[in-house]
Write a structure and sequence with these properties.
538 residues, alpha+beta, Phosphorylase Kinase, domain 1, 3 domains, five-stranded antiparallel β-sheet, four-stranded mixed β-sheet, 11 strands, Mito_struct-func_regulator, Kinase-like_dom_sf, ABC1_dom
């Protein structure tokens, strides 16, 4: 009975989607100056919508039918559920690849939602959605060049490799060489992004809203809202170029002590448009490739600390944040000055790629978020509650908000132990987190619906950075949390001082800083003792 009702719901969505797609395509034909493109839309958009509807209905029926009459909590049910999760994740991955564009963006988002979706989805999406996306044929690349720069790539560059070195949701990257011999990376937007983006967004919104009406606990409407706001910015490559230059300028002005350790490729403005971006080609190891990083003579632990430091400076001090720091967007190379640490290892430089998605944090958001992380590091329950409320979590969901940020249950969040937030990365810990997510799924959905969109992006950034740290360290380290605590605490002191620059305020800020240094010296000492204890036990 339930299966039949799900199929009927899926059929209704498919018909509605087809109607919307057909209407959009007909409107395109009526208004387009390019009838061939309009005809293409008329035939492809409804197919994409029906494909989406069919996939959603199939997944719903698979869950209902496969788990029918299996006792809750039984080992058999858990085994079958794991298999259904895998099948469903692969169906979604196949749908994303067939439809492309906004669907791949959705798949990437799903891959970061460790606290909300089963681990099988996270693994499949992360494996396929970062740099294994479908490739646009070379004739479409040439179309973009002719439309944007008036010539084919072969006439613009001395050399141009028609085979891309990477392909993502919105674009693919080709290697080229300018006429003065400079090796460059050319980012070319997929043509279908412009053609079908509006219809794709409407269809995804229709499906998500329909599923919410059928299953009220399934509320991903916030995800559609987030993509609708961020996608236009990401599709403007000139905006991306400006973001990259502003990011480096912020490090030079506001964080000069770390500026040499962070880099973004130089932009070739004369060869860039809103749909083409020509940049300096960067050699380096992808940040989750530990073996490649070690071959460079760099310690992965040093890279993890640098990533934490760089993003802490962006979030708590600059207020201008790269919000898509997944592994494909971060490279590591040895610091060009060839400086080495006390162990003779080369110091790392972090290369930031894909600057399409940035967020400005206003003073209050930045101050409250920094205060919250300071409270999380120091296990200050009252400050966690106060600042969570200020950020939109409300009176009743602050513990859940803290859990999402740290991936720890409340009793661990407020544990005074120095390493209370460290993630071990064990199977037991992952299993506990999944159980926690399953138990509190409705409350998590409610929290995500209540939080301001800028905080949702901070959550996404936090999730990406956690995944990066996990790949580098097989978990997380106390050092990275100490860095976050120190930078967030410094930002709180600076923010308080900026509100009132009187002598009294200055003296109070100075005393706060002295106390902060003493506190972090104590924590660092505790860390050294922990390392010594582990070494002796080993």
């Amino acid at each position: 009975m339930v299966a039949r009702s799900l199929w009927r719901a899926g059929a209704k969505v498919a018909m509605a989607a087809t109607a919307i797609g057909g209407g959009a395509a007909a409107a395109s034909i009526a208004t387009s100056d390019d009838p061939s493109m309009a005809l293409k839309l008329c035939t492809t958009v409804p197919l994409r919508l029906v494909r989406l509807s069919f996939t959603v209905a199939t997944i719903a029926v698979d869950y209902e039918y496969s788990l029918w009459r299996l006792p809750e909590g039984s080992s058999e049910r858990e085994k079958v559920k794991h298999e259904v999760h895998l099948r469903s994740a692969r169906r979604i991955q196949e749908l994303c690849f067939k439809n492309g564009g906004i669907y791949i963006k959705l798949g990437q988002h799903i891959g970061q939602l460790e606290y909300l979706v089963p681990q099988e989805y996270v693994q499949i999406m992360r494996e396929y959605m970062l740099n294994k996306c479908p490739v646009s044929p070379y004739n479409q690349v040439c179309e973009v060049f002719k439309r944007e720069l008036g010539m084919t790539p072969e006439k613009i560059f001395l050399e141009f490799n028609p085979a891309p070195i990477a392909s993502a949701s919105l674009a693919q990257v080709h290697v080229a060489r300018t006429h003065d011999g400079q090796k460059v990376a050319v980012k070319v937007q997929h043509t279908h992004m412009t053609d079908t983006a509006a219809a794709d967004h409407a269809s995804v919104a229709l499906i998500v809203n329909t599923l919410y009406r059928i299953f009220p606990s399934f509320d991903y409407r916030w995800l559609v809202d987030e993509i609708s706001e961020s996608l236009p910015k990401e599709l403007d490559f000139l905006n991306e170029a400006r973001n990259s230059e502003k990011c480096l300028e912020n490090f030079r002005k506001l964080s000069p002590h770390i500026a040499d350790y962070v880099y973004a490729p130089k932009v070739y403005w004369n060869l860039s448009t809103s749909k083409l971006l020509t940049m300096e080609f960067m050699d380096g190891a992808q940040i989750n490739d530990v073996k490649a990083i070690q071959k460079l003579g760099v310690q992965p632990s040093e890279v993890a600390k640098l990533v934490s430091h760089a993003f802490a400076e962006m979030i708590y001090k600059h207020g201008f944040v790269h919000c898509d720091p997944h592994a494909a967007n971060l490279l590591v190379r040895p610091l060009p000055s060839n400086r080495r640490n006390i162990f003779g290892k080369r110091k790392p430089q972090l290369v930031l790629l894909d600057h399409g998605l940035y967020k400005d944090l206003d003073f209050n958001i930045r101050f409250n978020y920094a205060s919250l992380w300071k409270a999380l590091i120091f296990s200050d329950a009252e400050a966690i509650k106060e600042n969570s409320k200020k950020l939109g979590a409300g009176e009743d969901l602050y513990a859940l908000f803290a859990g999402i940020l740290t991936m720890k249950p409340w009793n661990r969040v407020i544990d005074p132990a120095v390493d209370h937030l460290v993630i071990q990365g064990t199977d037991n810990e992952r299993s506990e987190l999944q159980m926690y997510a399953s138990e509190y799924f409705p409350q998590i959905s409610e929290l995500l619906r209540k939080l301001p969109r800028v905080i949702l992006l901070m959550l996404k950034t936090n999730d990406c950075l956690r995944a990066v740290n996990n790949s580098l360290l097989q978990g997380s380290s106390l050092e990275t949390f100490l860095i976050i605590g120190k930078v967030s605490s410094e930002a709180v002191i600076e923010a308080k001082l900026s509100k009132n620059k009187s002598l009294t305020r200055w003296l109070n800020a100075w005393l706060d800083e002295v106390m902060l240094e003493a506190r972090f010296f104590t924590l660092q000492l505790a860390l050294w003792l922990l390392h010594l204890k582990k070494a002796l036990l080993w």
